[in-house]
Amino acid sequence: MNREQLKTLILTLLIIMSVVFTQQIWFHSPIAILQSEASSQERQLKNIEKKKEVIMPKRGIVSFGNNYHTIISTDIEELWTASKVILEDFFTGEPEVISTTYDKYRENNRLKSIELEFGKNISSVLVGSVFDTVDNKIVMNIKEVKKILIPALNRGVIYIVGKEDHVYEVKLDNHQENRFLLALIDDLQTANHIKYYPLFADVDNYTVMPLSYQQSTPQVFVESNINVENEQMVIEEVKSFFNESLDFVKTIRETSGAIVFMYGYGEKGVRINNRGRLEYTEEIRNFSSSNVVTALEIAIEFVEDHGGFPEDAYLKEIRYEEKKGYYFGFGYRIEGLPVAFNSGNLAHPIEIEVYGDKVRSYRSLIRKGKNLPNVSPTNYTLLPQKIIEDHIELLKADYLADIEEKDLLEEKEILNYIERNIAQMELVYYDTLEDARIQLLIPTWKIKINKRVYYFSSYDGKLLHSGLVN
């Protein structure tokens, strides 16, 4: 074989190798890229659906007319789904938004209607995003949604309570009447339900109270999602915060039983205490501003990537933090009742701070049902008004301690103040946080009177906790 033939052979081999490698690039790599893109899109769609799930009312108050109501917490999803069918037309259409009075709101609330109560500082743009619209007449005119009132005989009018309790009437022309909501209210009225009534309407307080409570709510055994004594579980839980590797992460076990994982010189860290409360922090130096929708999507993606949301989770509070950041607080329900606790380090079961496209902090304490039978009570649930009556001396003393003017007031004036300022009343599962990982949740009446919130056992009326609120 001469030199020219050798060159030809080598050139031929190079061409064949080039074709083979090109085939590898053009036929195999695009498949991997397409698979990666498909997985990313699937994940994005999943997070969008989760966003729509957590943006929901914390409870619904159904009016049967003549000032009789019932409160829906357990089946709020069904009520919310039915309400969305009507609300979608208002958020995607061209309604007229005008200011109105609280008296007009009350006038419609006395008739058959559904009142949806949302969490604290819930932006209207987030509620609009549930209907895939963030630029509409409602968002332009109303920045915050506290409550939405939908009259049962809906004829193109709903009412929204916004920031500082400002009331808006939202009118939609050419609206198709929907009687499904009326049918739902009628079904609830004929079914077994707790009747509520505004007992203090004579002093212009329309907070509804149960007339009777012939139902028993059991105590529930729960345990924390994270068992700090299970080292392998803790490691698996923590690895996701450090790109699945703890090679350069320092581990410290505190005398309290908590475990701390620290990367670098405190740039990133995770702490899990003996109850299973997790706290993640990351130092953020540079970040750009983001809107509340994007920030919530980032928060949801982060939670989903690090353990996920508990069942029946919902958005409870939003705060705009300094330096263009957002705080999101999430709650969840167990057996239909909201879970509540009091901790100096944690206001809600899940808290997350988003700055730009980065998560600065994430805190959570999630309980799950333990495979133990519930503890059935021997008596029915006490009425909250009976509990208020039994603790009236405590309430009077707290009122006198909280007021700025220390002038002597007549007892009748103090009692009138308490009746006027009962702003919230709901049954919750209260976590006393007394035990470590395993806890017995107690059904508790949460009663808010002006600046203070009280937690009373629904079994015997015992005060479990009280404190000032913002």
Describe the structure.
The protein is globular. A hairpin with a 3-residue loop joins strand 15 and strand 16. With 470 residues, the protein is α+β, with helices and mostly antiparallel strands. It has a 15-stranded mixed sheet that branches. It folds into three domains: 59-193, no CATH class; 226-365, 2-Layer Sandwich (TATA-Binding Protein); 373-468, Nuclear Transport Factor 2, Chain: A (Roll). The chain has eleven helices and 24 strands.
Present the secondary structure layout.
Elements: H1 3-54, E1 59-65, E2 68-72, H2 76-92, E3 96-100, H3 102-109, E4 113-117, H4 124-129, H5 137-141, E5 147-151, E6 157-161, E7 167-171, H6 180-190, E8 196-197, E9 209-210, E10 220-224, H7 231-239, E11 249-253, E12 259-263, E13 268-272, E14 278-282, H8 292-305, E15 313-321, E16 325-334, E17 337-341, E18 350-355, E19 358-364, E20 367-369, H9 384-390, H10 392-402, H11 411-420, E21 422-431, E22 438-449, E23 452-457, E24 463-468
Parallel strand pairs: 17-21
Antiparallel strand pairs: 1-2, 1-4, 3-7, 4-5, 5-6, 6-7, 8-9, 10-20, 10-22, 11-12, 12-13, 13-14, 14-19, 15-16, 16-17, 16-18, 18-19, 21-22, 22-23, 23-24
